[in-house]
Design a protein that fits this description.
Distance between the termini: 126 Å
Helix content: 25-40%
Order of helices and strands: HEHEEHEEE
Number of helices: 3
Low-confidence stretches: 50-60
Shape: elongated
Number of strands: 6
Radius of gyration: 36 Å
Oligomer: single chain
């Protein structure tokens, strides 16, 4: 008599059950592995899913080019400096350091510039700037000769007033004998400048608070 443990039919049946279990467990492990790899790919952005969050890539701010001097009829060599007394200036502090607007305004006033206003801006700039409209480009170039390391920024104002924004990387005005301007020597374009009509002006920004210094 054959014992149950040695029954060929039972042995075959058990072997088939074990094989089926092995196949089921193998398929289950393979499925879990595929799900895990898919989740990792979706998380890293390698693939997109209906539930994927878009990856935000910040766009670098475009730096506005500096404007070239405008051509002047009857002056083929270029525009001449504007007399200091004909340049109306507003001086604003756009830095963390207090008192720099007043200090610059005092120097410019002593040199004959028509300083009309001083004050503080809402936001700061790193590099000092001159801001002006298309009618004030030659005036801005004349003023820029007084102060090293600043940017010329074209905005959408209508008049000829030039704003000096004193930034965190503040550089004081040059000594008068170091200012390379003479009344009969044409101004020179800054390196890499672009004609003003090819530049989109920024919006004119007013100070948070200011004090008028002249009528």
């Amino acid at each position: 008599m054959t014992s149950p443990a040695q029954d060929p039919a039972r042995v075959t049946r058990r072997r088939r059950e074990h094989e089926r279990q092995a196949v089921v467990f193998g398929l289950l492990i393979a499925f879990l592995l595929v799900v895990a790899l898919g989740a990792l790919a979706a998380y890293t952005g390698a693939i997109s899913t209906p539930f994927s969050r878009p990856i935000y890539t910040p766009v670098a701010a475009t730096v506005q080019p500096e404007p070239c001097l405008p051509p002047v009829k009857g002056q083929p060599d270029g525009a001449l400096p504007v007399p200091y007394e004909d340049i109306r200036v507003r001086v604003f502090n756009a830095s963390e350091t207090g008192g720099v607007a007043g200090a610059n305004a005092e120097v410019l006033t002593e040199r004959g510039f028509d300083v009309r206003e001083t004050g503080n801006m809402n936001s700061q700039v790193e590099q000092s700037e001159l801001r002006f409209g298309t009618k004030g480009i030659t005036r801005a170039y004349t003023l820029a000769a007084q102060i090293p390391d600043l940017r010329l920024v074209l905005d959408d104002r209508d008049g000829t007033v030039v704003d000096l924004l004193v930034g965190n990387r503040y550089t004081p005005p040059l000594a008068e004998d170091q200012v390379l301007l003479t009344a009969d020597t044409p101004l020179q374009d800054v390196e890499g400048c672009v004609p003003a009509d090819e530049i989109t002006p920024i919006a004119k920004v007013e100070p948070a608070q200011s004090v008028k210094t002249a009528a």
